Amino acid sequence: MAMDSETENGRLEHKNHKNPIQHSRLRCVIFVFVFAMAFSKAVAYDPLDPNGNITIKWDIVSWTPDGYVAMVTMNNYQMYRHIMSPGWTLGWSWAKKEVIWSIVGAQATEQGDCSKFKGNIPHCCKKTPSIVDLLPGVPYNQQIQNCCKGGILSSFGQDPSGAVSSLQVSVGLAGTTNKTVKLPLNFTLAGPGPGYTCGPAKNVPATVFFTPDHRRKTQALMTWNVTCSYSQFLARRNPSCCVSLSSFYNDTITSCPTCSCGCQNKNNCVESDSKLLSLAGVNTPRKDNAPLLQCTRHMCPIRVHWHVKLNYKDYWRVKIAITNFNYRLNYTQWTLVVQHPNLNNVTQVFSFDYKPLLPYQSINDTGMFYGMKYYNDLLMEAGPSGNVQSEVLMQKDQNTFSFKKGWAFPRKVYFNGDECMLPPPDSYPFLPSSARSTGRSNVAVFTASMFVWAVMVLFW
């Protein structure tokens, strides 16, 4: 008995010794899983725009006694994400002790300490300059092609001609040959807030330029590229928009989930009938871009409503409404991207412009909606004019079309390049017939279960 007791105690001790190891392994597994999830969110990859990025090209076009003159060009290759007011801010770190003698088409936000210069004073002496675009209407001698748009950079899918911005910079105290020039480091891009991550500068084949008559071409003395990618996870903690749903075949309106965009602004929101909104200056944007939101359950600046409106024999019709709940911000050149399987048969779009997106050439289920120029491409601040709407007519494909199981509602929705919060699928408006069939199936399952239980009781 004593040996049995000792053996049992040994087993218990061995079991207790194993538990810390098992717990440690479990903690490691959980840590790796959480890290992988966080890293996957931070990766700047958009499945609906896999090749989207902003490329900064730096072309040295001439040498100077102590440096060079370069053309810096920003190309936005993102199909539906643009940079809106107050515009982009470009930054980097100099590899040596370079200074900026002058800039055309842009300016540095700070001059820095230039006290060691006795004659000409440089435009910027900071080790890490921050460059912003000039505003429209500056004198011609300060302009260059594709400059002076207040930092606004259109998306490539919406306006390719407006998706480029340029500036000319004269750099001093730098190398004067291809072998002595050092590439700048740590490029940053704010557009206008966080979200963009830039890779290192890389030497690429020199850019070729054509004269206006296209009879002669010249070549940059040296060229390098920097690629910047966007991550919504890095831009903000919470989504910036949400989606609500409704249909003609069900009285239920599926609202945006509560606190879809976080409720940190819940105490600073304003009711739509508040007298505060009549005060002068309340709609003026603030330097920190702090919003003034209308009080709602979802607390989102933007709500997208998708309404299944009509059903014809060969077509069906959807109404889309976008509402702005921010009293301090107008959305210029807004874009709305929707993923839905029937967008491969769009027949007509009313009041919006539409362009199919083909991130994967064999699948045509994603499209971009945007406002018509000078008509509704500006989504006004919250209030009576703070919404835009359109209707979409789609042809039915009898092999795939259905109103069952939420098929008529979008799979993904993006506003201004950020993915919106969708309601949970079990809250979608459903067909009355599907509810009855579900009820019958539940009764059938219950009856079958009772039958099996009775058989087991009888033959136990």
Give the gist of this structure.
Residues 240-429 form the COBRA C-terminal domain. This is COBRA-like protein. The chain has 460 residues and is of the alpha+beta class.
Fold and architecture overview:
This protein is of the alpha+beta class and 460 residues long. It has three helices and 26 strands. The strands form six sheets. Strands 1, 2, 4, 7, 9, 10 and 13 form a seven-stranded antiparallel β-sheet that branches. The protein starts with a helix and ends with a helix. The model is unreliable at 1-26, 28-43, 435-449 and 451-460 (pLDDT under 50). Residues 240-429 form the COBRA C-terminal domain. This is COBRA-like protein. Keywords: Glycoprotein, Signal. Belongs to the COBRA family.
Topology pattern, helix = H, strand = E: HEEEEEEEEEEEEEHEEEEEEEEEEEEEH
Could you tell me the strand content as a percent range?
25-35%
| Major sheet details | 7 strands, antiparallel
Uncertain regions spanning at least 5 consecutive residues = 1-26, 28-43, 435-449, 451-460
Please report the number of helical segments: 3
Give the overall pLDDT as a whole number.
86
Protein name: COBRA-like protein
GO cellular component, one term: plasma membrane
Pfam families: COB_C, COBRA
Domain COBRA C-terminal: 240-429
